[in-house]
Amino acid sequence: xxxxxxxxxxxxxxxxxxxxxxxxxxxxxxxxxxxxxxxxxxxxxxxxxxxxxxxxxxxxxxxxxxxxxxxxxxxxxxxxxxxxxxxxxxxxxxxxxxxxxxxxxxxxxxxxxxxxxxxxxxxxxxxxxxxxxxxxxxxxxxxxxxxxxxxxxxxxxxxxxxxxxxxxxxxxxxxxxxxxxxxxxxxxxxxxxxxxxxxxxxxxxxxxxxxxxxxxxxxxxxxxxxxxxxxxxxxxxxxxxxxxxxxxxxxxxxxxxxxxxxxxxxxxxxxxxxxxxxxxxxxxxxxxxxxxxxxxxxxxxxxxxxxxxxxxxxxxxxxxxxxxxxx
Length: 327
Prior knowledge:
Elements: H1 5-42, E1 52-55, E2 58-60, H2 67-78, H3 87-113, H4 126-156, H5 166-177, H6 186-219, H7 226-255, H8 277-288, H9 297-326
Antiparallel strand pairs: 1-2
Helix pairs in contact: 1-3, 1-9, 3-4, 4-6, 6-7, 7-9
């Protein structure tokens, strides 16, 4: 008896959403410490050097100057749990984000390939893989953005806390900015996510296709191992993050604009500091130099590589397991 097409599509959507949510949750929790360090650098307006000038003839150290130093500071001031600051809203963001992303991605690939079978996706044009990834990233971003904003605010504040809980942060944002405030920084986020998601999924498909061809030529078997999937995800995450990091810095500045921050963490981003993305880039370059656009690049790449690898491997495993248990 043939399966009803609509029933099959619903089944596939549930599998993609479930596998995406689980893989996103695992990846986010594993890489949270690097994400916290990255955000601390990105919202630090002072130059990332041992000494910076704050006034004429007056010098004081930047709060964070390197990954190792930042790790020690966070551990000393906030304890081990400080590395998971903002992880609850991060999970609330990333689980629906990856669920929406993989569901939309699979649907777009199905439409482009004309088949719901993943085996046929290998024949999909690389350009369609990039486009599908970009559109899926946009849909997922819009659906989960308020949690991304809350995650950034909580992860950036340090000790003493300005916002003790996610609820406090939410209430203050709505009180100060209104409901629209929950979408502060959405425009630069969309601009960032289009190339980022496109590169991440496009390069993953490309590396996966190359690996399968290599296996076929060398072993006469194109089946791909979990370790090879991990390496493909690692490479895809690294490429995407290295290219798009400056846009991520701009996004973080808009997200914390006008919000309180303890004085020991340096200057905060004032309300109306940036008119638009171009203005933000120009002001960052003028005040902080080119390194300002790459603040947090090292923890970002260190995080993006395993995050991409864990996400893709966990998704493939979970998807296969759900498919086998469903039938």
